[in-house]
Amino acid sequence: MLDDFMIRALVGGFGVALISGPFGSFVVWRRLAYFGETLAHSAMLGIAFGFLLQINLTLGILVTCQVLALLLFFSQRQRLLASDTLLGILSHGSLSVGLVVLAFMEDVRVDLIAYLFGDILAIGATDLGWIYGGGGLALAGLIWLWKPLLAITIHEDLARVEGVAVDRINWFFLALMALTVAVMMKVVGLLLVVSLLIIPAATARRFAASPEIMAVLASMIGCLAVAGGIYGSFTWDTPAGPSVVVAASLLFVISLVLPKRTG
Questions:
Q1: What phi, psi does 161 have (nearest 5°)?
Q2: How far is CA 17 from CA 1, 14, 40, 149, 187, in A?
């Protein structure tokens, strides 16, 4: 019989996996891993603002990620710096500023390891509400954007000619990505968020016959990784968040030796 905290960890982890599968598929297709990493690193600044303003930390992370998503959207239009250079500045700058702000708050004791690498075993009812409420909203938004976003991913110029509002769709997608990163923080932490987005999707890509099937497979593989990671953490007393990512990585390695789908 599983303890309550284990059940909450599994329910929360499965929720994150179901959300990250479709989003991770677009991250892989559009080569947006660095965008995801930048959003994840900005979460530390959101944590600092949450403590500073004495508001819910998830709300602080969400607001900060949304602001950074807006900056990322407009950064795509500037020509002063290469995109990867600007992303590096925003990513490491926001992470470092967040850590420095926390260091100045002497009356606040923060478990940085939990925020950096996740604390899935400490998930509570409020966290489940954020995961399924915010994550469900993000997933519903992605389903609404699915066809035009897929058209942009395949050929942006052709989609623009066909009347797709490319800029608006890209902005909505980045905003939904920011929401997804915010709800994933509790499970794997800001340093491992991108791993749970990319690895299951990369694993599913070898066997998918269509974009929709890849998204579903990525979610299923993510759920397997969560279950395997939590089991490994409980059995060998290892950190839960990194254990989930290790399980996902093992599934990816196993997929490499299986026959790839052809046709």
A1: -65, -35
A2: 23, 5, 16, 21, 10
Report the 3 state secondary structure along the chain.
CCCHHHHHHHHHHHHHHHHHHHHHHHHHHHCCHHHHHHHHHHHHHHHHHHHHHCCCHHHHHHHHHHHHHHHHHHHCCCCCCCHHHHHHHHHHHHHHHHHHHHHHCCCCCCCHHHHHHCCHHHCCHHHHHHHHHHHHHHHHHHHHHHHHHHHHHHCHHHHHHCCCCHHHHHHHHHHHHHHHHHHHHHHHCCCCHHHHHHHHHHHHHCCCCCHHHHHHHHHHHHHHHHHHHHHHHHHHCCCHHHHHHHHHHHHHHHHHHCCCCCC
Structure token pair of residue 135 = 């994550």
- Amino acid identity of residue 225, one-letter, is A
Query: 52 is written with which tokens?
Result: 């500073």
Residue with tokens 């297709």: 29
User: pLDDT of 14-72, one tens digit each?
Assistant: 999 999 999 999 999 998 888 888 988 988 999 998 998 888 888 898 899 999 888 88
